[in-house]
Amino acid sequence: MKRVDDFRLRLGKQELVPIMVGGMGVDISTAELALEAARLGGIGHISDAMVPTVSDRRFNTKYVKNKLRQYKFNVANTEKAVVKFDLGLLAEATAMHVGRTMEAKRGEGMIFANCMEKLTMNDPRETLRVRLKAALDNGIDGVTLAAGLHLGSFGLIEEHPRFRDVKLGIIVSSLRALQLFLKKSARTNRLPDYVVIEGPLAGGHLGFGMDWAQYDLVSIVTEIREWMKAEKIDIPLIPAGGIFTGSDAVAFMEAGAAAVQVATRFTVSKECGLPEDVQQEYFKAGETDIVVNTISPTGYPMRMLKSSPAIGDGIRPNCEAYGYLLDAKGNCQYIEAYNREVALHPDAKKIKVWDKTCLCTQMRNFELWTCGHYTYRLKDTSRQDASGKYELLTAEHIFHDYQFSVDNKIALPTAPPA
Fold it and tell me: Domain 4-404: which topology?
């Protein structure tokens, strides 16, 4: 019976344990988690979602405070077009986040940055260019293009000296999305080094509509693999979403996948950035506690725990401090929803906004509990103490369970002495 460790992912000249830990933002996939995955011979991700906020946490910088001070005059205004990021400071924050992570890297694995196209930041093209360039400048091993089609992203960095050697990948949820990306990127004469195929059971934003349950990862992977074979395109395929055990991973690799991307099980690791009280909510969740809704202002459906404090919370938009989802004209769907509710309830001290959420503030505060479909199975991966609290796991324990387990078994943490 094969194990994940019987396979290897080949990226260029490098051989890796075929386990990629997904890039969960905001700072849920921490540098510490990514460093552990790399130390163990796999691939870890850091996310560049809200990287000035992450820098403030990690390095005690004051990007958010200073941005709020700069635009405080605009807090009460509904018009947000004036609120912009200083691109030099954005590059500086990205440089610290990436550079210091790479300085700390040990082991034979790699560290990639997960880069979200949907972080429009009131200047979509230039903020994306700055984040990509700064990641390459500061030694990142690879960049995974996420949360969008990224049709022009290769073009933003094609003149960078590392464009041909850094590992570049794209997350897609359909053959059509991959075909569009390859067509638009063809003029750069560079294929992606890997393709992450994210299915409908993944956590956070989904690349599907609310009909997500009609799709399945195996069928999507098979369709993409057969098309690539017919087109004589050789790019490693990495399925993601709902791969809960080492045996799940082996099944994909025996069918031709080069590796797997996993994330849900690492949300309850000690190295994860989630506060421990939130991690306990993940452990306690049942299957009916997990929902897919459309409250994200990005326009994508999103999977989360239905007990997330962010759902229905009518917090005032905090674009002057954050503003990561402002489009090129300074608009955000949450601002529209919030202003609508304020107009409908002019005398209310506290309003409810059910159809959208302030994603920036809520993700920053760990109040939006995004999760994978199989989060309800996390309780089966740990032990409870006498008080009912679940034991957090080390990233190494989870990684090795994927790497060496067989027969769909999950290794529990070592029981405390009697």
Answer: TIM Barrel (3.20.20)
